[in-house]
Amino acid sequence: MMLKFLNLTLFVLFAVSVCFAQKVTATSNGIFYNVKNYGATGNGKHLDQGAINKAIEACAGKGGGTVYVPAGIYLCGSIRLKSNINLYLDAGATILGAPPESKAYDEAEAFADTAYQDGGHTYFHNSLIWGEHLSNVSITGRGKIDGGGMTNKDHEHMGDPTGGSIGTGDKAIALKLCSNILIRDVTIFHGGHFAILLTGCDLVTLDNLTIDTNRDGIDIDCCTNTLVSNCRVNSPHDDAICPKSSYALNKPQITENLVITNCEVSGYEEGTLLNGKRIPAKAGWSNGRIKFGTESNGGFRNCVVSNCTFRNCNGLALEEVDGGIMENIIVTNITMQDITHYPIYVTLGKRNRGPKASTHMGTVKNILISNIYVTGADSLSGIQLTGTPGYPLQNITLQNISVQYKGGGTKEQGMKPFPELEKGYPEPFLLGANPAYGLFARHINGLHLLNISFTTAKQDNRPALIAQDVNGLEIDRFKVPEVMGNQLFQFAEVSNKDITHAAWLILK
């Protein structure tokens, strides 16, 4: 009797599996649209974007559903998403970017007005996967997007608005003015200029993504109500997760209500996150960090970064330099190891790249950075908190911060005047070695330093703390190593001090 029951059970399970397989491969049931039934080969040799686009159009024409990409390698140019579509990449499925000479990518759209933003932020249709003015769109599954022959140019920094490679497929995923977006579980390798670029989007969820690329990993530009969670982003020569608020929509538009949580960012050589070798890349312009800006015409408001790890990359950067606001930002529960250039960088500059008639000085206020543990921090610069003359940072709190620096700085470095950022590009290494190895603060109204601890692997002969033009300096529990004969701090134009539990800071 038991044997008959087991046989019946196995038969039922087999029947269910057969039915499910038929459902997945069906082309007209309104739920699953298998791209192979629309002519996709999946052999990695023939261009398949035409077949995939046919499947997407058929699915959208029936009101939406899932476009199913089974295991295989699909050589593709531009794939055009539609509303109410879930592009599902099954395990073993790879969308492979075609080389530029294939002419398989859509032409970049026209940009009628002056481009005050980098070229990579100006054009979208020339991407591997793109969509505009869509709603209820998702890319999911355990498959991979491999940029393959996509363009991956060198940096276009320093304010060149024509930067970026136009017409050759320079972004893996680009979505503009879309709502209710979900990208989950997929892996992106060699993602071009941006692995994921979201511009002017609302209600966005990016979850459980693995990105191993050479340029920016995730750029969130002029977006609202965005959640980035449980993602691993490796970007050895650019930023890993980068909120922005550029002028790409021909107006300043804020990025707000953003949460980045439970993520890992790193600066290993491209591909070595995925293969497990984790080979540290040489630090260049920027690598592997979480950075707000530099594109910041609209600014940032109500943003939280929590429970993240940084490894072999630059530290956290909050940069407002194009006239927008940066306010109500919380960064908490962060660990960093082997950090290049600086551990924390908060700055207000006046690059003000945008129309002269509408661009004004920005503001930075209400920033809380807490529970940060850093080891192996670069000797180039400690924490930098800098406003601009006449435009101070406001209400900045650092709490429960522990940084172990490499040290080795000289007295001569500690005595050099440190240049103002002004209209310069906001990267600490461009200004040279900082005169403070631990924390440099300038042009701030309301600076609160609570439970701060610095140590050095090698003796550093620069001051641990330099504060200039700071009104309202509160310090409680601040520890640094004492170095005989060295000046541990420098204050200039510091008013309204409240210092407790930091005997080395008590003026004699």
From TrEMBL:
Spans through the membrane: none
UniProt entry keywords in alphabetical sequence: Glycosidase, Hydrolase, Signal
Keyword S-adenosyl-L-methionine: no
InterPro entries: GH28_Enzymes, Glyco_hydro_28, PbH1, Pectin_lyas_fold, Pectin_lyase_fold/virulence
Leader peptide range in chain numbering: 1-21
Classification via PANTHER family: PECTIN LYASE-RELATED, PLASMIN AND FIBRONECTIN-BINDING PROTEIN A
UniProt family annotation: Belongs to the glycosyl hydrolase 28 family.
Protein name: Uncharacterized protein
Organism of provenance: Mucilaginibacter polytrichastri
